Amino acid sequence: MKRRRTERFCMRCGRPLASVPTDGRVRPACRACGWVYFRNPSSASAAAVVSGGRVVLVRRSVAPYVGSWCLPSGYQEYDESPEETAVRETREETNLRIRLLGLCGVYFSDGAGVKNTVVHVYLAERVGGTMRAGDDASDVRLFPLDGLPRRIAFREHLDFIEEIRAGRAVLAPLRRRRRR
Ligand SMILES: [Zn+2]
């Protein structure tokens, strides 16, 4: 297993990690304190904000795919639900306030080689705000569902927009987050 720099030392006690069979796989683990590095995919969300046959896309200003267009999207913070991530990322990248209408679907991606990611895609409507690019976006525009730009960053975003355009999107209802 190829080790990245961040996986060479124990997160708990700082000693070098060894390769140890744990729970069915060989994983980086600390023989001194017992800490095991379980490498998991990251979680992210994207929002398809649709209005009058048009969808909001942002132009990426960060790698990967700088200059390509995609749905407002980003990684989930540790204390956020996927729904909250979709709302926050859309506000940061487009300045729009949105209401989520349902879950379009979930897909698994290698994140263009950056890191494996589970992405939740929501259909949404605008409820406020003036469209303005921010954060990881250099531009934000409304595109007709049947007139999208050629360079779309993530194939899956295009697939979900196609399903929405064709009326084939089946939305899973949103559930209220349980708070303890
Ligand atoms: Zn340790």
Total tally of structural domains: 2
Uncertain stretches of 5 or more adjacent residues: none
**Overall mean pLDDT:** 91
Order of helices and strands: EEEEEEHEEEH
Beta content? 35-45%
What structural class is derived from the secondary structure elements? mainly beta
Helical run tally:
2
CATH topology of the largest domain: Nucleoside Triphosphate Pyrophosphohydrolase
Morphology: elongated
CATH architecture name of the largest domain: Alpha-Beta Complex
CATH homologous superfamily placement of the largest domain: Nucleoside Triphosphate Pyrophosphohydrolase
First-residue to last-residue Cα separation: 39 Å
Major beta-sheet overview: 7 strands, mixed
Q: Any idea what the radius of gyration is?
A: 19 Å
Percent of residues in helices: 10-25%
Assigned CATH class of the largest domain? Alpha Beta
